[in-house]
Amino acid sequence: MEHHNRITDRSLIRSKPFLDKEASARAKREIDAFLDGKIEEWNRTVPYARHFEGKQVHLPYYRQSLIEHCWRIRLMRSAQANALHRITKLHAEAAKLYAAYQDEEMLHDMLFMQDAERIGVSRDEIYATEPSFCTRLLAGYLYFVAEHEKPLGVICYSYLVEYTTQKITPRQIKAMGESLGKDHIRGQAAHLNTDLVEDHTQDMWDILSLLVDNEQDLTDIKRYLSEIQDLLKMFFEEMYRLHGAAEQQAA
Amino acid sequence: MPTLRFVNTGTQVEFTGSVALIEMEDHIMFGCKSGNCGTCAVRIVSGGENLSEKTDREHRLFELTGETDPAMRLACQCKAYGDAVLFEIN
């Protein structure tokens, strides 16, 4: 029996991408329009969706959302690193771009922890708080997608986060600067700055674009974005049940 | 030999000539390394005069975040030319 190379990984060979520059820009416009619709749906269906854009912030809600945000960053970076490992075997250049993004974002939980400390939540308290079931499900979903489906599904999480940050967070930061005080949200303002200046939305699209191999992948990007939004929605609905609903009943 | 002293970790580093603080990854946490995220913010306890001038990126980020303490610097943007004592924020 002849001996052949048992390694079939060809990720270092540059092939003609399925999406050329023009097709990629067209696909991005279509996905962005889809996401704009998802943002509208979010605002329409998630209670308290625009709470941080208001004049007053409900402190227990804000406090829990900050703690969870730290955990979300911490848990997702592990899930994303797992996907990165997969991507190295599919497309080395896409992996290089995602590694650069991870390098920039890896420690950004610190920025949210700084803001948590500014409202009296210590790092130890954050470490002692178990992340919600919904956040743990989200992390599990990203592992599942990377292991059994397509690693591009994990990049969809990064794209959704960056796209919505670009679209929504500037308004939130401006409003929270007034409601909570600018000095209380320094970490979040700095985090927003790096996402915008570095144009992480475009960076994530560039990775997605390299990983798209056929029309089905484009269809699946929309499915992944929808499912990820559903998982995130579960957490914010739970938060509302815990904080907002009680407040409204009391009012 | 000039020395950089890190208050939080209780460590110090000697150097010759000048040193970019971005090389101090064993002592300071860095994020974007390009003056945009503030992960590497440090408060200069002493020796500020031995550091390079604040860059436009530091001015921009501190203005954006409302940071008014003149002793705050972004380590990724600084070079040291002499002794300094730094308090690592993260």
UniProtKB/TrEMBL annotation, chain A:
The domain of life for this entry's organism is: Bacteria
Q: Name the chain's protein.
A: Iron-containing redox enzyme family protein
Organism of provenance: Chitiniphilus eburneus
UniProtKB/TrEMBL annotation, chain B:
Query: Cross-referenced InterPro entries, in alphabetical order?
Result: 2Fe-2S_ferredoxin-like_sf (IPR036010), 2Fe-2S_ferredoxin-type (IPR001041), 2Fe2S_fd_BS (IPR006058), Beta-grasp_dom_sf (IPR012675)
Kindly give the Gene3D superfamilies that the UniProt entry links to this protein.
Answer: 3.10.20.30
Q: Which protein are we looking at? A: (2Fe-2S)-binding protein
Q: Which GO terms describe its molecular function?
A: 2 iron, 2 sulfur cluster binding
User: What single Pfam family name could you report for this chain, choosing any that match?
Assistant: Fer2
Q: Where is each 2Fe-2S ferredoxin-type domain found?
A: 27-80
